[in-house]
Amino acid sequence: MTDLTELAKRRGFFLQTAGAYGGAAGFYTFGPQGAALKDNIENAWRDRFTVREGNMAVDAPTVLPEPVFEASGHLDTFDDMLVECPDCGESHRADHVVEDETDHEEAESLGPERVGEIIAEYELVCPTCGAGLAGQAIEDFNLMFETNIGPGSSSPGYLRPETAQGIFVEFPQLAEYARNQLPFGVTQVGRAYRNEISPRGTLLRVRELTQAELELFIDPEEDVPDLASVEDVVAPFYSADAQHAEDGETRELTVREAVDEGVVADPWIAYYLGVATEWYERIGVDMDRFRFRQHLAGERAHYAADCWDAEGDVSDPGVDPDWIELAGFAYRSDYDLSKHHEHSDEAYTVFKQYDEPVTVERPTVDPDMSALGPEFGGAAGDIADALEALVERDPDAFREAGGSEGSRGASGETASREAGAGEDGNGDGAVTVEVDGEPYDVPVSDTGFAVEEVTESGEHIVPHVVEPSLGIDRALYTVLDHSHRTDEVDGEERTYLELPPEVAPTTVGVFPLMDRDGLDERAREVAAELRERGLSVTYDDSGAIGRRYRRQDEVGTPFCVTVDYATIGEAEDPEEGGPREGDRGEPSDGASGERGEVDREETSTRTATGGSRERSDPREDTVTVRERDTTAQKRVPIEDGDSSTRARASSRCRTSPSSSSPGGASRPSCSPPSSGGSAWRRSGSGRASTGGCSAG
After folding, report:
1. How many other C-beta atoms are found inside a 10 Å radius of the C-beta of residue 439?
2. β-bridge partners, 331
3. CA-CA distance, 659 to 688, in Å (whole number)?
4. Of 166, 170, 155, residue with least CA distance to 344
5. Are 184 and 56 a contacting pair, CB within 8 Å?
6. Which stretches does DSSP call E strand in 444-588?
């Protein structure tokens, strides 16, 4: 982690915020490389979870009023376990203290009482000063940042702890946009805020983070996922049963096997686990250091049918795995929408049309205001409203009080017995309703309780929610960790990143071999043309050519272009005696570079011709290609012909069967641009990448 953090700061991926003022714990600034990498990861997520899934996207405020979080339950339950050191006064997450110093891996699921017992049993101490923590109270600490909305007698508000509530609260309008047709999904990428007790691990535990969330609204009785599209995707599953077993292990299963064997209970969750597997591999997560872990009973919310986390191992080589949560996948049932339906003035439902109309019995009340008015005075109207709410929620309360099962016709007249008559109820009982916190006993005979027979063409239902929630910051950190490489060349350690072209901050580095003889001017033209074609380009003419390659290696640039003398039509460098092959310093057909400086790797070259005109010198107006993952250089032509010829040779994203993602879905791949007659290569070393590029 130390090496990666140092690289991240030195090369502009991320650094602690406000370092000049001592820093702010839990806050990090993304530098130029990190911001570009983050944008590319977010765009890859939007492509997979919004565009390809056919979902809608929203962008909600980061501050929401207090009633939203009262309804959602965050004010009461969005807590972590806090323990305070009796000596130095530092606060720590009690479950993290336990996990760091014992064999307990998921202490959060144990609860405060058990965590306190473990702290005492193991005589755990304060990580800051070493004082004993045994006997210290374990308290719930709410993680939300509170603020005021407006001046003076302002309204309380909170920075959102998750992006999801900004979607849920707008459901009535979003359902209209979706024409009230289930299923439909809504996505959002944005900042969330959590006042963490003890931020740590750079981007792994922060107070401001970026989430990418999808809320899929479904009819649980009708809607099923397209499981066939991901059924052959293989993923590692670490079930709750395996976690409880002494010898429990992660199992490699296809998505279909996981569903058929009951490892994943819900097909919707299984579908998104398959989608996420492909996506994480696409952005550069090492699948040998990746798994899905099922929540234990103590971790899972009471309303959730099933929950799984995507986890990545970010440990240093040679030590035990250090699994961090990357994403959560939850079947949230109708909990969220029901809460907002209950607390707000809007209906969080959609109308479900029946195939054919049906006749049903519906309990109703018709309060006798001539009796309620004299009895309850000014509260009578509110009591009548409370009775109507009660009969919808709990009609048995009226039956138990002696209300009859009489039916009411369309005219509102009682078709059989009113409440208070007949053998099923004598009307002597009362029902209790609450108005402004005060209970009122209402004689059932005054409620007008009856049962109507009505014909209905459909019903209003509260949709269920399936939620894949991904953390962008942790995905970025994991991609950097998994792509981080070191090797030794000529006794010197080299550090580089092996990022997929689709997410790499810079797609192409462009260098003039020398800063003279027109090479720099041509190199700038090449850079400008590549930018016009939608590629992210860095121009660098500072220092030896090999050093420039190294700088791009360190930030994961997949392709580099060197403008050499062959580019501008000269057979050789008038001072150096000809282009040299970088790793051996031997002459080559256009493989440019100073002796021993280009790559110090095994390279080979070839000359390619193209375009609509003949060349007297086959090297003239060609580019030398050096690709990061192929360790080879080659010359490709620059086209000076018509625009269609140039377009065919340009580096644009294309779909190729050779770059298909797991499961058969094609994705963009990158072909080298034939621009400017220059030395084009892929930087770094290692296995060939099948990732896409970020062009257009």
Report:
1. 8
2. 466
3. 11
4. 170
5. yes
6. 450-461, 464-471, 484-489, 492-497, 508-512, 537-539, 559-563, 580-581, 586-587
What gap in Å lies between CA 163 and CA 186, rounded to an integer?
11
Instruction: Tell me the C-alpha distance between 673 and 377, whole Å.
Output: 84
Answer for the pair 62, 190: CB distance below 8 angstroms, yes or no.
Answer: yes
| Whole-number average pLDDT of the chain | 82
- Token look-up 């806090």 returns 82
Task: Give just the sign of the alpha carbon dihedral 113, 332, 469, 659.
Answer: positive
Distance between first and last Cα of the chain? 34
Please say whether the beta carbons of 581 and 602 come within 8 A.
Answer: no
Longest dimension (CA), the chain: 115
164, 183, 189, 252 from 177: Cα distances, Å? 18, 13, 19, 40
Residue whose tokens read 């009113």: 418
Q: Return the number of other C-beta atoms located less than 10 Å from residue 275's C-beta.
A: 25
Report residue 95 as tokens.
């479950």
pLDDT at 387 over 60: yes
Q: Which residue has the tokens 């490389």?
A: 33
Q: Is the pLDDT at 532 greater than 90, yes or no?
A: yes
Domains for the chain: give ranges and CATH numbers: 2-78+143-336 (3.30.930.10), 80-142 (3.30.40.230), 352-459 (no CATH), 490-681 (3.40.50.800)
Which has more pLDDT, 394 or 615? Answer: 394
- Work out whether strand 450-461 and strand 350-364 pair parallel, antiparallel, or are unpaired: antiparallel
Tens of pLDDT, residues 265-288? 999 999 999 999 999 999 999 999
Helix 472-483 vs helix 2-10: angle between axes, to the nearest 10 degrees? 100
CA dihedral of residues 281, 282, 283, 285 (deg, nearest 10): 10
Give tens-digit pLDDT for 118-128.
Answer: 999 999 999 99
